[in-house]
Write a structure and sequence with these properties.
With about 525 residues, the protein is mainly α. It contains 17 helices and no strands. Helix 3 runs antiparallel to helix 15, helix 6 runs antiparallel to helix 14 and helix 9 packs antiparallel against helix 10. The chain is globular, with a radius of gyration of 22 Å. It is found in: Cell membrane.
Length: about 525
């Protein structure tokens, strides 16, 4: 027991946390594991540039769209039961995805995996709140959860590269099966939790949330691909209108999917925004660098994955250093300083030339070191800025923002890189038109050309893609600078997280938090 009467977690709870970290890492790993597999499955399934984007995007979109919905469902049927259902579904659909025979089949499987993943994240977060009552231990457990999520994203390309070196592209999905079997075997370590006062699942809110997110993302992707045409503008406008209706409905419901009252606290709002946008920028950069290593530098999946393991390890070190620093330095300064380091890394990436693999990895490592504090602090800031009875809702919102941010990064930064590639590439005479869609298309087209033409096409495609990478780095540098300003201005009042940290009671104005 602690001095305030909260029971301390024992060995069983910490073993249960390890079991919960497994699906968390897998759900996030599944976002980035396709970065290196994409060229292989695109050739095998005949996926065009638009289908490739949907294969990578739809998983994160569906996870983000259903995350809080599944959290509400878990309140009604039990978190551990939902974890069992979601884990089993994730394993079965992973096997089906590995056996896909068309781009459309894989897109559908990725969508179903996203929905299954949405059952896992809120269940793990809610059970952590049940298992760890002591405030200090709860903060440590949330840091472990955040580390597992971010490490999963970072390790995805390395894991994918290792699998692709020895197996076919479907192996990146098969690996989900043993992880889910381990989770199911560990369920006896976890308590069941059902909220006796949980509200009814509002199906209209579920429809409205998806009706807001998906048109917005589709519109952004279409603008990057086709310009400001009427179709994309209509989609963006429709998403915004539905989003406004969704927000209005949440304010009227007694048991909303999103408890908008949490956003009255400026620190909570800032934490959600930083987590979402940082995940977006990190994932978008990782995808572009993974493609650069494999298509521009011509590295094998295994070698590219091993190179990407270096910044992943730097990220792990940064995440684990953050709690120690945040015990002495205000979290707003820790997060803002990290964002400035990420700005430096992105600016350095804009100077990378073809053939400078070592420099690119060093620059990406600088960026990842700056991103690390987000994984180590955002959950704690959100929890500290929320009343204790709202901890589960707050954690779900942070997770939703992170998932949406990752998907948004892949969509917007991926399409930005593609748009720059298409505008910069001048196709040599005799080159197929498909080479102008994406660098994967150029690599595939070059294999059917005479040596001289193939070399000319690949040189032009590599130069155009490198320009696209520079553009992504420049945009990211500006956005990271904005996040630094947000952290410095909106979180500077928070005291260092030293010792036990007790959130203040819920109130209309910003709570005065102390260490």
């Amino acid at each position: 027991m602690t001095h305030d009467g909260a029971p301390r977690a024992g060995r069983k709870q910490w073993m249960g946390l390890a079991a919960l970290a497994l699906p968390t890492m897998l759900v996030s790993l599944d976002i980035s594991v396709l970065f290196l597999a994409l060229p292989h499955l695109s050739v095998d399934l005949g996926a065009d540039a638009t289908q490739q984007l949907w294969i990578t995007d739809i998983y994160g979109f569906m996870t983000a769209g259903f995350l809080v919905t599944m959290g509400s469902l878990g309140d009604r049927i039990g978190r551990r039961r939902l974890l069992l259902v979601g884990g089993a579904a994730f394993g079965v659909v992973s096997l089906v995805a590995a056996m896909s025979t068309s781009p459309e089949m894989l897109i559908v499987c990725r969508a179903l995996l996203g929905i299954a993943g949405a059952t896992l994240l809120p269940s793990t977060l809610s059970l952590i709140g049940v298992m760890f009552r002591d405030p200090k231990q709860f903060g440590q457990a949330m840091a472990v959860w955040g580390t597992a999520f971010m490490v999963g994203i970072a390790l995805g390309p390395a894991v994918g590269g290792a699998l692709l070196e020895r197996f076919w592209w479907g192996s990146v999905f098969v690996m989900g099966v043993p992880v889910m079997l381990l989770l199911i075997a560990a369920l006896p370590l976890l308590p069941e939790y059902r909220d006796p006062d949980g509200g009814r699942l509002d199906l209209l809110s579920v429809v409205l949330s998806l009706g807001a997110i998906l048109p917005l993302i589709y519109g952004l992707k279409a603008v990057a691909r086709d310009g400001w045409a009427p179709g994309p503008l209509v989609a963006i406008a429709a998403g915004l209108v539905v989003g406004a209706v969704f927000v209005r409905r949440q304010r009227a419901l007694e048991h909303p999917l999103f408890d908008l009252r949490l956003f009255r606290h400026r620190a909570f709002t800032a934490a959600v925004l930083i987590g979402m946008l940082c995940g977006s920028l990190q994932t978008g950069t990782g995808m572009e660098v993974a493609l650069f290593l494999q298509t521009v530098e011509g590295l094998s999946p295994l070698v590219a994955g091993l190179w990407l393991l270096i910044p992943s390890l730097v990220l792990i070190v940064s995440i684990n250093l953050t709690p120690r620093v945040a015990a002495k330095v205000r979290p707003g300064y820790v997060l803002g300083g990290g964002m400035l380091i990420a700005v430096l890394g992105q600016l350095l990436i804009t100077q990378v030339a073809v053939g400078a693999v070592t420099l690119l990895i060093v620059f990406l490592s600088v960026c990842y070191f700056g991103v690390g504090p987000v994984g180590g602090l955002v959950n704690q800031v959100a929890m500290a800025s929320s009343p204790p009875e709202k901890a589960g809702s707050a954690a779900s919102m942070v997770a939703t923002g992170g998932e949406f941010g990752v998907a948004l990064g892949i969509a917007t930064l991926g399409t930005l890189g593609t748009a720059v590639y298409r505008s910069e590439l001048v196709l040599p005479a005799g080159a197929p038109a498909v080479a102008g869609d994406s660098i994967n298309g150029a690599v595939g087209a070059a294999s059917g050309l005479p040596a001289a033409q193939a070399t000319e096409l690949l040189d032009a495609a590599r130069a155009a893609f490198t320009t696209g990478l520079h553009a992504v780095g420049a945009v990211n540098a500006v956005l990271f600078a904005g996040l630094a300003l947000l952290a410095f201005t909106r979180l500077r009042h928070l005291a260092p997280f030293a010792g036990h940290h007790h959130p203040e009671p819920e109130q209309e104005q910003e709570p005065a938090l102390t260490g």
